Amino acid sequence: MKKIVAFAGFSLLAVGAFAQTNLQVFYDFGEDRKHVTSTLEMFKADDWGSTFFFVDYDYFTQRERDEKNALGVKPNKDFYGARAFGSYFEIARALNFWQDSNLGALSAHIEFNAGVGFGYRNWLFGAEYLLHNDDFSNTFTFELLYKTFKGSESHLPLQFTFVWGMQNIFGVEGLRFSGFADVWGEDGPYADKDKRQNSLTFISEPQLWYNVGSLFDCPNFNVGCEVELSNNFAGNQGFMCNPCLGVKWDF
Fold first, then answer.
1. Between the CA of residue 216 and those of 29, 174, 212, 221, what are the distances in Å?
2. Alpha carbon 179 to chain centroid, angstroms
3. Going by DSSP bridges, is the β-strand pair 175-186/138-147 parallel, antiparallel, or unpaired?
4. Taking Cα atoms as reference points, which of 223, 94, 208 lies closest to residue 161?
5. Tens digits of residue pLDDT in 19-44
């Protein structure tokens, strides 16, 4: 799950860019993972705010196909192709008609997310607030959202989201540190069913990218890594740490 460029809108406006699209491909080295994930992200700012969406696809690997064959799963042409076994989608709209006022950093927020293989569909409503330095090279966004639950329940239906981006870190041109963290409570499979207490659900994906393409006149190409940190997320109980390596193409 990715939402890294979603709240870079003000920084994009500051440098005269109004849209950004990128494609990321990661290999997940986590235990019992060992699969490839592709992510298509798009962000576009306008006079009324900004729109962001991303789509994740997870793909079978040869190891997983071999394991299924060992279990007697009947092969077919789809099974041996580049078949996605799970997908996740988010689309968000930030509304800000007052960008030139003293409250320009505060936006209304509406979001929808759903997935295949995740079993949940959620609407989120709330507000987001942007902090930044003078040249917008470092940004931090905080969101407070009311979250509906389809497929699960929550006695405290709130989500806290943090998104950050840091350009040219350690003084290295083209080195970017970015990421997000979502925290919410959910009466899911990890909650105390007798007391009906929420379990803490957490997901964070810090990323480190280097614009290696700038070294050979291909500034769209980036290489990097990601660490997925989660707790009680996507059907996995307890804390998980899944390192990934990947490439990114900025359109």
1. 29, 13, 8, 10
2. 8
3. unpaired
4. 94
5. 689 999 999 988 777 889 999 999 99
DSSP letter string, 12-60: HHHTT--EEEEEEEEEE-STTT--EEEEEEEEEEETTEEEEEEEEEEE-
Q: Going along 117-194, which residue ranges are E strands?
A: 121-132, 138-147, 158-166, 175-186
Alpha carbons 199 and 188: distance in angstroms, whole number: 7
Q: pLDDT tens digits, residue range 159-208? A: 999 999 999 999 999 999 999 999 998 776 554 555 445 578 899 999 99
Question: What share of residues in the chain are helix, strand, coil (percent, to 5)?
Answer: 10, 55, 35
Give the chain's end-to-end CA distance (angstroms, integer).
20
**Going by DSSP bridges, is the β-strand pair 84-95/199-204 parallel, antiparallel, or unpaired?**
unpaired
Element (H, E) at 66: helix 62-70
Contact yes or no for 139/132 (Cβ under 8 A): yes
Q: What is the dihedral of CA 192, 195, 198, 200, to 10 degrees?
A: -50
Q: How far is CA 104 from the centre of its chain?
A: 25
**Rg of the chain over all Cα atoms, to the nearest angstrom:** 19
User: Tokens for 87?
Assistant: 């997908």
- Geometric angle at alpha carbon 167, from 164 and 173, rounded to 5°: 160
Distance of CA 42 to the CA centre of its chain: 12
The residue among 175, 90, 93, 100 whose CA lies nearest residue 137 is 175
Q: Chain-centre distance of CA 60, in angstroms? A: 20
The CA–CA distances, whole Å, from 180 to 18, 149, 228 equal 21, 21, 10
Buried/exposed 21-48: b ≥16 CB within 10 Å, e otherwise: ebebbbbbebeebebbbbbbbbbbbeee
